[in-house]
Amino acid sequence: MEEYHRHCDEVGFNADEAHNIVKECVDEILGGEDYNQNNINQWTASIVEQSLAHLVKLGKAYKYIVTCAVVQRSAYGFHTASSCFWDTTSDGTCTVRWENRTMNCIVNVFAIAIVL
Asked: 10-56, pLDDT tens digit by residue?
């Protein structure tokens, strides 16, 4: 059992690391842009693909799910929720909220440990 815990610590999900990776991707793709309906599909696809590629490059034993929503800023706000049934000792999640004067972006990362 001790070996298993050491293994978990080695590959443990680091939410701060994931947050920084995703935030960099969002900044790179959306930074300096104004909301434009015609670009949303490309922007969201790029955000999830680049975030996923960088997470996988970490080489940890995880399956990742990355979601992204971009909406035009309005007086109505933007609300999301998620729920997971998983092992809280090994699996994890992080959410990146990003905004500028014309749009809001929320990216969720869900990391599910691969048990070998």
From this structure: 446 899 999 999 999 999 999 999 999 999 999 999 999 999 999 99
What are the helix and strand counts (H, E) for the chain?
Answer: 3, 3
CB-based burial label for 115 (10 Å; 0-12, 13-18, 19+): exposed
Distance CA 62, CA 41 (A): 26
Secondary structure (3-state) at 98: strand
Question: Kindly report the CA angle at 16 between 69 and 60, in degrees rounded to 5?
Answer: 95
Largest Cα separation within the chain, whole Å, is 53
Cα dihedral across residues 48, 53, 58, 59: positive or negative: positive
107, 51 Cβ separation under 8 angstroms? yes
Q: Which amino acid is at 10?
A: E
69 Cα distance to chain centroid:
11
CB atoms within 10 A of CB 55: 21
